[in-house]
Design brief:
The protein is an all-beta fold. Helices cover 0% and strands 53% of the residues. The chain is globular. This is Lipoprotein. It comes from Pendulispora rubella.
Length: 157
């Protein structure tokens, strides 16, 4: 899976498939993904909400929720000046097991966080292996200038 952001940020899951780009006005439906971490979340299971943070110019926090038949990606985006903040999320029909994720459909959402700062979030079909080591998933973050390794931590079951 791979997610890319119009201003240069991408999150990849074995380098292909899910593209991320940013933010949406319909973020209220996805705000709950950004709640506090559940202390007793099952770190060995893919199912539930995973999160990571990036100190980037626009997207700050990411959430990834796996259910047996859906995958949801969400991002908390902020404007370059830090005054505006919005949450975007996209859900796609999927087949999820502890070993792999199959995204079955495309989904896309797009909005302006500020007058000239657009965020776009999209999911793309594909089959992707899953690996959790010591309760963490490694999903690379790629920018227009290269890539950054990101560690996703289990937030809730």
């Amino acid at each position: 899976m791979k997610m890319t952001w119009t201003r240069g940020l991408a999150i990849g899951f074995i380098a292909t498939g899910i593209m991320l780009s940013g933010c949406s006005d319909d973020g209220d439906a996805y705000d709950g993904l950004f709640s506090e971490r559940q202390a007793n979340a099952n770190q060995a299971s893919i199912f539930g909400v995973w999160g990571t943070s990036v100190d980037d110019s626009q997207i700050v926090d990411y959430r990834l929720r796996f259910a047996r038949d859906t995958v949801t990606f969400a991002a908390r985006c902020k404007s370059a000046d830090g005054r505006a903040s919005k949450v975007v999320g996209v859900t796609a029909a999927s087949e999820v097991t502890e070993q792999r994720v199959v995204i079955k459909e495309s989904a896309k959402e797009e909005i302006y966080v500020a007058s000239n700062e657009k965020c776009t979030l999209s999911l793309h079909p594909g089959t992707h292996p899953v690996q959790i080591v010591d309760g963490k998933m490694q999903l690379p973050l790629a920018t227009e200038d290269g890539s950054i390794e990101a560690t996703w931590e289990k937030m809730t079951d």
